Amino acid sequence: MASKDSLKKIALKGLVAALLPLTMGSAWAADAPAMTDEEKATAKQIYFERCAGCHGVLRKGATGKNLEPHWDKTLPDGTKTSGGTLKLGTDRLSKIIAYGTEGGMVNYDDILTKEEIDLMARYIQHTPDVPPEFSLKDMKDSWKLIVPVSERPTKQMNNINLKNVFAVTLRDAGKLALIDGDTHKIWKILDTGYAVHISRLSASGRYVYTVGRDGLTTIIDMWFEEPTTVATVRLGSDARSVDTSKFKGFEDKYLIGGTYWPPQYSIMDGETLEPIKVVSTRGQTVDGEYHPEPRVASIVASHIKPEWVVNVKETGQIMLVDYTDIKNLKTTTIESAKFLHDGGWDASKRYFMVAANASNKVAAVDTQTGKLAALVDTAKIPHPGRGANFNHPKFGPVWATGHLGDAVVSLISTASDDPAHAQYKEHNWKVVEQLKMPGAGNLFVKTHPKSTHLWADVPMNPERDLAQAVYVYDLKDLSKEPTRLDVAKDSGLPESKAIRRATHPEYNEAGDEVWISLWGGKTDQSAIVVYDDKTLKLKKVITDPAIVTPTGKFNVFNTMQDIY
Ligand code: DHE
Question: Which of 77, 97, 123 is the last residue of a domain?
Answer without folding.
Answer: 123
